[in-house]
Amino acid sequence: MKRRKIPPRAVLTLVLAALVFCIQAATAALVMGIYYLLMQTGVLHEGRIWGGAVLASFALISVLVATALSLLVGRGPVKWLNTLIEGLEALAAGEYQTRISIGNYRDLENKFNLLAEELENTQLLRTDFINDFSHEFKTPLVSILGFARLLKRGNLPPEQSREYMEIIEEEALRLSAMATNVLNVNRFENQRILTDVTRFNLSEQLRTCVLLLEKKWSAKELEITAEFAEHQICANQDLLKQVWINLLDNAVKFSPPGGRVELGVKAQEDSLLVTISNQGDPIPEKDRERIFRKFYQCDRSHATQGNGLGLSIAKRVVELHRGHIWVESREGTVRFSVELPDGPPPDAGSR
User: Fold this and answer.
1) Structure pTM?
2) To the nearest 5 percent, what fractions of the chain are helix, strand and coil?
3) Residues 6 or more apart in contact with residue 115 via CB below 8 angstroms
4) 87 neighbors 114 (Cβ within 8 angstroms)
5) Rounded Cα distance, 34 and 40, in Å
6) 62, 138, 179, 234: most buried, per Cβ within 10 A?
């Protein structure tokens, strides 16, 4: 048999009733104690009538005092508890825009409103994620379907058929990369312990990543500057490689033809700072935090060149290494900075 849950308001009523009873009982006990003390000391010795009148007076006083104390103690808590319960019920119903005001209890009020704001932001992120994912997934599918139908009709010149097949191949690869990145994002979000930590040459890894993207930056005739000393780091080599590839790929993608991309590595007191800068349009201030969200792309003109997951993956990998990643932007320049501790994280597993 399923047990019925007691409504929160009923629980609150019972608690306050018990509180009132305890206050009245304590007050009555105190008054009766005083009366007994007076009787023992002989102050009340002029007869039963006088003693009874005094006892009745003390009983009345005890009731009045207990009632006043109950109203004084219970008035505030009843009001803010009722407001808090109503707010929690609204949040449970999905009304995340709910905010409360409970007077003198500012700390509790601020924490509740902060919770409601975070829930509202999470809901917005969820909605945006679904919309963005649907868009990113649908676009290549529509492209593949359209060109496949054109090929199915036949009677196309060989050059045009080959062009359409290349487009279908590119869009299929884009879908495959998207699926891989989504799996990586989910894997990294669920991962809490960094494994396979080794000590390797970070500077050499950065130079290798630049060479891996040579085809892309050469096609845009970009100038790549990667002049820095040799630096060693304890980290997961494969995961950090994804960070540099994603950041460099973004720098190349958003650089104008003939522009410049600069890489830097700087040793700090107990960390290493890696910077990747490129020339190009600045990132609006309102987008500088959003760009690390899944599928978010502030420049839709480059949407066909990516899926908006690279920076989300980079951010999570950096967090796994107990590091920080941020972006700075001013007119004509965008710079991503990654700060990594110069040593293995406390919970890392080495090999």
Assistant:
1) 0.55
2) 60, 15, 25
3) 91
4) no
5) 10
6) 62
